[in-house]
Structure formats: C-alpha cells, structure tokens
Prior knowledge:
Keywords: Coiled coil, DNA-binding
Helix content: 55-70%
Strand order of the largest sheet: 1-3-2
Number of helices: 6
Pfam families: MerR_1 (PF13411)
InterPro entries: DNA-bd_dom_put_sf (IPR009061), MerR-type_HTH_dom (IPR000551), MerR_fam (IPR047057)
GO molecular function: DNA binding; DNA-binding transcription factor activity
Largest sheet: 3 strands, antiparallel
CATH topology of the domain at 1-59: Multidrug-efflux Transporter Regulator, Chain: A, Domain 2
Number of strands: 3
Radius of gyration: 23 Å
Coiled coil: 94-121
Strand content: 5-15%
Order of helices and strands: EHHEEHHHH
Amino acid sequence: MFTISQVSEKTGLTPYTIRYYEKIGVLHEAKRRNGGARVYSESEVSYIQCLNRLKKLGISLEEITEFTRDGCVLDKIQHGEDLVNFTPTLHKRIEILEKHLVELEAKRQELEYIISLTKEKLALYQELMKEDMINTR
Length: 137
C-alpha cells in the first residue's frame, strides 16, 4: 500500500491533484488507515498513472471520467466478462480517442511547420555568421 505522497512521487501528480480527482469523481474514494490517511494499492497507482497519461493527451476531466466509467475494460474482458456488456463503453472510448487523435494530428502539423521555420532561420543566421567571420579577417 502506498501513501498519497508516495503516489505523488510515482505519478508526478501533486497530492492536491489526487485529492481533487477523488473529489470530482475521476478517482474512487481511497481506502483510509485508522488515522484517516489515504492508502493506495499498486493497481490504483497504475490507474492514476493512466489518468495522468489521458490528461497529458489533452483529454478533459469530464471526458476522462466518461472514459474510465467502467474501469479497465480490457482487464475485465481478460478475466472472462462478456465483451457485449462493454459495447457502449467501447464506442464512447473510440469516439473520445478519435476526437483527440484529430486534435493531436493538427498539433503535430503545426509543430512540423514551426520546426521547419526554425531550421530555416537557424541556417540563415549561421550563414550570416560565417559571412561575418570571413569579412572580418
């Protein structure tokens, strides 16, 4: 079992963020020790890391809540639950991921354009510096 501080170190999320995710329902309420301190299992830490990756993709907390509503569907299917039970969930997850893939592709194109411009400017400035060095000899 891990404390909230240990989970924070493992996930890169602050304890405040972890408590906030719990408060808004993105995370289930953590188990508590006798003194009231939150404790998390290894699988809960993995789940929080997954939430963090979804957030880094630019997925909103509302969409993350929807995305994770039925927990880890792949685990449930691997443990024998019927895929038919998760068809609506899988459709919603596909919809969320497709939307964000389009947004990520647009960002990538923009980054590629900015990288190209930066390389052009860098080459131009390097060429100017070479000319300046030749002229000052």
